[in-house]
Amino acid sequence: MRHIIEITDFEAPELDIYARLTEVQLLNRHEPEKGIFIAESPKVIERALDAGCIPISFLTEHRHIEGEAKELIQRCGDVPVYTAEFHVLTKLTGFQLTRGTLCAMYRPKLPSVEEVCAGAYRIAVLENIMNPTNIGAIFRSAAALNMDAVLLTSDCSNPLYRRAIRVSMGTVFQIPWTFLEHKAEQQYKGIQLLQKFGFQTAAMALNDQSISIDNPKLREAEKLAVVLGSEGEGLTQETIAQCDYTVKIPMSHGVDSLNVAAASAVAFWQLGQRKSGCDCYGNFS
Fold it and tell me: Which residues pair with 44 in a beta bridge?
C-alpha cells in the first residue's frame, strides 16, 4: 500500500538525506554498512532496485506519483513517498530535479577484489579519478563496451555519489565493482594483485615505450586489465612501471590526449574485443 506524505515542514528529519546531509555523510566512510545513496530518475532507480538495493524513501513531484514513478512506488510497497510541487522540491534540495524523482537507498555491501575478478576477462582499473562526472561516464562506457568489472583506488570519487550514478545512467548497479584497498588485500599492491589473478595489465599513458592501442598482443591477451589515471596527472610512474604494457591512443591535429572519460570509451571498445571477436552493438543516446 502506498504511503504518500505531503511535505509541509522543510526541517523534518526524514528529509535530511535529501536536503542537509553531504555526499560523504550519506556514504558513511567509517561505517559503510550504514551508508545511504541517492538514485535520481526512474531509469536509474529501476536499475538499482533490479540490482537488489533496498529503498528507504522517495522524493517526487506530485505529477510523477501517477506518472513515471508510479510503477516504482508500487514495487516498493509501503516505503514513504515525500511529495510536493516542483518549485518546493527545488527549494528543499537546492537543485532542480531533472527527472522529478529521487530515491534514498541503503548502500550495498561491496564485494572483494577476488569476487569482482572471478570469471572476468576484461576489467577497468581507475587510479585517482576524482571527478564524479568522469566516474559515471567511465562506468557507462565500461558496461556498454565489453568490460566485465571495474576496480577503483581509494582516492577515486565514489561511484555512488548522486552525480556519478546519474551520469552512469544506473550502470554502476549493472557492472561489478569495488575498491582495491580492501583490508584483505592490503598486503598486495593493486597491479601485482591483478597479475596474481592472471591478468595482463595495460597502462593507458604516453611515453617512449607506449604501443598502439590496436597492437595485436593486446587483443590476444586472455585476461586484460585496462588501467586509467587521474584527469590531470594521469597514471603514477610506479603504476606504469608495474604494468605489462604501456598503451597509447594515436592522435591527430597535434592533440596529445583525451579527457579520461573519452579515452576510456576508445580503450574499452578496442581492448574489450578478445581474439575470438565480439559482435556487440548498442544504442547511442
Answer: none
The amino acid present at 188, given as its one-letter code, is: Y
Centroid of chain to Cα 227: 15
pLDDT digits (tens, 9 = 90+) for 78-131: 999 999 887 788 777 776 665 679 999 999 999 999 999 999 999 999 999 999
Q: Do 103 and 165 touch, CB atoms closer than 8 A?
A: no
Nearest CA among 126, 113, 188 for reference residue 152: 126
Q: Structure pTM?
A: 0.88
Confirm if 160 and 133 have CB atoms less than 8 A apart.
no
What the block records as the C-alpha cell of 55 is 529503498
Whether 27 shows a pLDDT value over 70: the answer reads yes
Which pLDDT score is estimated for 139? 98
Which three cell numbers, joined as nine digits, stand for 250? 594515436
Q: Are 132 and 167 in contact (CB under 8 A)?
A: yes
Q: How far apart are CA 277 and CA 270, in angstroms?
A: 11
> What angle do helix axes 132-144 and 260-271 make, rounded to 10 degrees?
10
